[in-house]
Design goal:
Number of strands: 16
Structural class: alpha/beta
Strand content: 15-25%
CATH class of the largest domain: Alpha Beta
CATH superfamily of the largest domain: P-loop containing nucleotide triphosphate hydrolases
Number of helices: 18
CATH architecture of the largest domain: 3-Layer(aba) Sandwich
Number of domains: 3
Bound molecules: adenosine-5'-triphosphate
Strand order of the largest sheet: 10-9-12-13-14-11-15-16
Helix content: 40-55%
Length: 481
């Protein structure tokens, strides 16, 4: 032991060695500082420290962004639905609010604010969630959102195999039990869909329509709903396109509401003015969810979509490739029945128009919109349904007289409803008032016009053609392409 102590360097020798080493290190550091630029030093340091932290850290982080390549990320969507159900009382921050204008006292909805932590427990694992939002500096590019899920490295596989499928399943259950439907509108400034609670009272029960027409629409919807295998087997995208056309006030919007209520689908109401171009349209459409209705109302009024495609092409040729054609019909059709149509399942696409004749023929080609539904003027059957709804009566001695008048006067269900509502507490007076209204309308149109119509109808009958007024304009019809 004594000899070992003798062999150890003395304290002064150690001190001297330490001094020289320190001086050498400082010299090397000064030389490196001189030679290596600061940004490179920083980079090397961050990589080095990152490696050390990763090596020694026992945590693993999954990052789930809102979009996955070209489409909305379904995993992100499931987390968005599931996570608010895991908010516990210890949370120190919460987003709260309501989007139900019909019910201001409805229970507050809760959501997760950016950068705050949510802890979830699953099968003995502790999982820490944070929502990160990166604000976009360009108004037409949406903010980037992502969830970070941090867990122990040791349970990473378990999280992938058990926890994520659990979230997907839970989200589906939550969505299937949702009490309210939503209606979405696209906010161009914030580049995102924004929702409000959709509580429209229209149902197939309240809708006044020719019974056969109504039944055939319901049958068509039934044969669409829940038939994933059928659509797969016949090689079609699980989508259905409806074109509703007819004069204003014949119930096109009411039918859309009735369909949404019948199917329990949310509505995405798209105004073409808020779409810049086809790329924008594709991004907007791929951000909609399954089991929903994409509604484009008054499609004939969309200046952009009805731009003559030949004119755009001419302009492009004249002014070079820089001309942005905006939204083109082909861009829209590509989503309806082109290659992009297979993105998403169980979707209805509904266009409405007051002027079918103004639509681009490409949209009307067989197979494009699967079903064309004509919403026509009031018929005796439609009147009776409205009388039952608004006056609570199924029959009246004056109904025969109304039937005769209705066959000769173009009156919309909206007009009928309005008239009947005036005296809904006194059915007799309401019926009398309605007859007066019909007579007034008849006089306005003028006897000679009616005679002209009748002469035309008779001629068409003689020629073997069907009367347009009775076939389409009045009664409504359904046409499967
Ligand atoms: N077929 C109908 N059955 C019951 N109510 C109807 C019907 N058609 C119209 N109405 C009543 O008239 C109102 C207006 O109808 P709606 O907005 O559905 O017509 P529209 O065809 O969509 O009109 P527009 O083309 O102007 O948008 C509705 O709120 C509803 O009360």
């Amino acid at each position: 032991m004594a000899s070992l102590l003798n062999e150890l360097p003395s304290f002064s020798t150690l001190l001297a060695a330490y001094g020289s080493l320190t001086a050498m290190a400082m010299l090397i550091r000064t030389i490196l500082n001189e030679i290596i630029p600061k940004p490179v030093q920083k980079f090397i340091y961050s990589k080095f420290s990152g490696l050390i932290t990763n090596y020694f850290s026992s945590n693993f982080t999954f990052i789930i962004e809102d979009r996955w390549q070209a489409v909305y990320n379904e995993t992100y969507r499931a987390i968005e639905v599931y996570l608010p159900t895991r908010i516990d009382p210890s949370t120190d921050k919460l987003l709260v609010g309501s989007n139900d204008p019909n019910n201001p006292t409805a229970p507050l909805k809760q959501n997760i604010p950016a950068d705050s932590k949510i802890i979830d427990e699953f099968e003995g694992m502790t999982l820490e969630w944070t929502l990160h939002v990166r604000e976009s500096d360009k108004c037409f590019i949406p903010d980037k959102k992502c969830f970070h899920l941090t867990c122990k490295k040791t349970v990473r596989d378990l999280v992938e195999q058990r926890y994520f499928p659990h979230i997907a399943k839970m989200a589906e259950t939550i969505l299937s039990k949702r009490e309210n439907l939503n209606i979405y509108t696209y906010n161009q400034e914030r580049s995102r869909w924004e929702s409000a609670v959709f509580k429209h009272p229209a149902t197939f029960e309240t809708l006044a329509m020719e019974p056969k027409l109504k039944q055939s629409i319901m049958d068509d919807l039934d044969s669409f709903m829940g038939r994933k295998d059928f659509f797969e087997n016949v090689g079609r995208a699980w989508k259905r396109g409806y074109l509703l056309y007819g004069p204003p006030g014949t119930g096109k919007s009411s039918l859309v509401a009735a369909i949404a209520n019948y199917m329990s689908y949310n509505i995405y109401d798209l105004q073409f003015q808020s779409v810049r171009n086809d790329a924008d349209l594709r991004r907007i459409l791929t951000s909609t969810t399954n089991r929903s209705i994409l509604l484009i109302e008054d499609i004939d009024c969309s200046r952009k979509i009805s731009i003559d495609r030949v004119k755009v092409k001419d302009k492009q040729e004249k002014e070079g490739d820089s001309v942005d054609p905006g939204v083109t019909l082909s861009g829209l059709l590509n989503f309806i029945d082109g290659l992009w149509s297979s993105c998403g399942n169980e979707r209805l696409i509904i266009f409405t128009t007051n002027h079918k004749e103004k639509l681009d023929p490409a949209l009307l080609r067989p197979g494009r919109m699967d079903v064309h539904i004509h919403m026509g003027y009031c018929t005796p059957a439609v009147f009776r349904k409205l009388a039952t709804t608004y006056l609570g009566i199924k029959d009246n001695k004056l109904f025969g007289c109304i039937d005769d008048l209705i066959k000769n006067v173009e009156v919309t269900p909206a007009e009928v409803a309005q008239q009947l509502m005036i005296k809904s507490d006194d059915p007799e007076a309401a019926i009398q008032g309605f007859i007066e209204f019909l007579n007034m309308k008849k006089d306005e149109v003028g006897e000679d016009v009616i005679q002209e119509e009748e002469a035309k109808d008779t001629k068409e009958m003689k020629d073997g053609k069907q009367s347009k007024k009775h076939d389409e304009t009045e009664t409504g019809s359904i046409y499967l392409t």
